[in-house]
Amino acid sequence: MAITVSTPKNRKSKTKQKEYPRNIIAKISERRKIRGEWHKTRYPSDKFQLNRATKELKDIIKEHENRCVQSHLSQLTSQKDTNYSLWRATKNLKQPKDHIPPLRKLDRSWARTDVEKTTAFAVHLEKVFTPLSCSDPDKDDDIANYLQSPNQLCPPLKAVSPKEISREIKSHSPNKAPGYDLLDSVLLSNLPRSGIIYLVTLFNSSIRLSHYPGQWKIAQVVMILKPGKQPEEVSSYRPISLLPLVGKLFEKVILNRMQSHLNAILPGHQFGFRPRNGTIEQVHRLTDTIGYTLENKKYCSAVFLYISQAFDRVWHDGLLFKIKKQLPHFFYFLLKTT
């Protein structure tokens, strides 16, 4: 693809170039001259001058680095205005450096090279994300027929405005990692008016055509080791998908238009993936129920269910069936293309 060829590779340098003040740069230049003179003459006096210049340079650099560290530490705070620099610095100091060991393949042989590790992860993820087959073939046929049936007429979705795009770009955290195209929120936040208008035209065209562009679906997958898991097992790693920021902005725009429909469908006690509804509120709701039953001398039973890999093996046809049945058809066609 042209975009892949023209986009510079995101190569991280292993060593960070240090910046020194002018007096240290001058001292480095002086030492290089003395060293060059000693390489020519090999006189003991020139060697003595080189050793003394080297020691003086080390002392000056050490003193400069100590001042930089003290200045950096004095500016660390736990407040938001400094991006919680104190906690970030503490985390970097305490966080252990993980070693990436060889991985076990499905046949229990070892994957040692990067290509072998990538293949082992790909085989594992393909197996994990394969949806389960339907246990009732008749129901599966009914759902397939319903998905092929005509759609009901409904009013068009609200058009995207430049103000909405600018607001969503500003609300995106600048610390989020970009996708494969390397476009981050800092770049988008500095777009001129013409760039915002271009995004508005692009989003409105996607809504009008009920089409989700395929380029926004390409994710850069990073495997993160789960805490306390065996590092040599491929199942011990959690995949993190880094999607293009433009696609994530479009998803937020669609969610804003879908939210009113979802609020009318979802029950009030469902807190997952809903704004201003966290675990604390659910804990209060649970304790209130327990307290009420105890005060009225009744029994209180609780059932806690955990479905392993629930989102990994979502039944797509069943999910599309619910979307088509309960939401306007614009959302069905748009989400179907994703």
Written account of the structure:
With 338 residues, this protein is mostly helical. Among the domains are: 21-75; 267-304, no CATH class. It has 13 helices and 4 strands. It has helices at residues 2-6, 22-41, 44-74, 85-94, 114-128, 137-148, 162-171, 185-189, 193-209, 245-265, 279-295, 316-326, 329-336, and strands at residues 103-104, 110-111, 220-225, 237-242. A two-stranded antiparallel ribbon has the order 1-2. It has a two-stranded antiparallel ribbon with strand order 3-4. The longest helix is centred in the N-terminal third of the chain and has 31 residues, at 44-74. The radius of gyration is 29 Å and the shape is elongated. The chain starts with a helix and ends with a helix. The mean pLDDT is 85.
Could you state the order of secondary-structure elements as H and E?
HHHHEEHHHHHEEHHHH
Mean of residue pLDDT values: 85
Tally of helical runs: 13
Largest beta sheet: strand ordering = 1-2
User: What distance separates the N and C termini?
Assistant: 20 Å
Beta-strand proportion:
under 5%
Question: What does the radius of gyration come to?
Answer: 29 Å
Shape, please? Answer: elongated
> Are there runs of 5+ residues with pLDDT below 50, and where?
none
Largest sheet: 2 strands, antiparallel
Query: What portion of residues is helical?
Result: 40-55%
In terms of structural class, how would the helical and strand content be classed? Answer: mainly alpha
- The count of strands amounts to 4
